[in-house]
Amino acid sequence: MRYRDIRKYIDLLNKGNIEEVIFLRPISENVDLAKVWHRQSRKTGGVVCSLDFFFIKNEDEIYIGAILDMCDDLHWYIVPKQRKKGYLTRALTNEVLPYIFLNGRESQRITVSPGLGRLAYLNSKSVATKVGFKSIDKEESVFLLEERDESFQDKTIQERNMGLSKDRCEILKRRVNDLSKELHKISDELKMAYGDDSCLKEISKEVYSYVHIIEDLEWKNDKNRVD
After folding, report:
1. What is the pLDDT of residue 199?
2. Backbone angles phi, psi at 200, to 5 degrees
3. Which helix (DSSP H) or strand (DSSP E) does residue 200 occupy?
4. Which residues pair with 142 in a beta bridge?
5. Contact in structure between 152 and 124 (CB atoms under 8 Å)
6. Confidence label for 77 from pLDDT (cuts 50, 70 and 90)
7. How far apart are CA 12 and CA 226, in angstroms?
8. Which residues sit opposite 135 in a β-bridge?
9. What is the C-alpha to C-alpha distance for residues 210 and 199, in angstroms, rounded to an integer?
10. DSSP state of 23
11. Residue 155: per-residue pLDDT
12. Is the pLDDT of residue 89 over 90?
């Protein structure tokens, strides 16, 4: 992913214009876990997919950086005016790496390409080594951190439920209902054409059950707020 794409998401967050694009879950005061729905270029067929991000905020709750979690690599970006202030190092040390390791990952690999330019390469390399990554190739472009290399056992991650408005829950329930109907319709067409729908009608019923699942999640969240 290009830096300008990541910057675009940071700008969307600061403008509050994230509906249907970015879904956030705070894991600390300064870092949010996120699912970002990204439309790829036309060359790949315009595929829409969900990407895993960590977004970083400063003391004024302004988003100033992001880390794209690609599992086999981490790709980070800090807006130019907020660099050299320790935000990235602190986020990696206190939230991002503990979250990754506490959720079952045993090691984390990153690449720091000299092709980024000498200054960008040296800055990224400096951050990587500060948080414990070690070079594993002669070119010093691939770095590895294993869970056992650093102690993350004393770190605690405080994930927080954001909840949804009643209007938003109603929209989601209508969408689930519409999807169920569409699958049922496809099932009927397949049965008439081939005498078999490969259990698609049963899947449509299962999809419809999520209307009630959303209602249960909504009720539990409201109950917890009251309690």
Report:
1. 97
2. -65, -35
3. helix 200-226
4. 111
5. no
6. very high
7. 32
8. 143
9. 18
10. E
11. 78
12. yes
Sheet with 31-39, strands from edge to edge, namely 22-26, 31-39, 48-57, 63-69, 74-78
DSSP state of 198: T
Q: φ, ψ for residue 152 (rounded to 5)?
A: -110, 5
pLDDT at 127: 95
DSSP line for 35-78: EEEEEPPGGGT--EEEEEEEEEE-TTS-EEEEEEE-SS-EEEEE
- CA 189 to each of CA 106, 178, 202: distance values in angstroms, whole numbers, following the listed order: 47, 17, 15
Mean pLDDT score across all residues of the chain: 91
pLDDT band at 28 (very low <50, low <70, confident <90, very high): very high
Q: What is the sign, positive or negative, of the torsion defined by CA atoms of 134, 138, 139, 142?
A: negative
> Which two tokens mark 153?
């056992």
* Residue appearing with tokens 């405080």: 158
Task: State which amino acid sits at residue 131.
Answer: V
DSSP string across 115-177: GG-HHHHHHHHHHHHHTT-EE-STTS-EEEEEGGGS--TT-----------HHHHHHHHHHHH
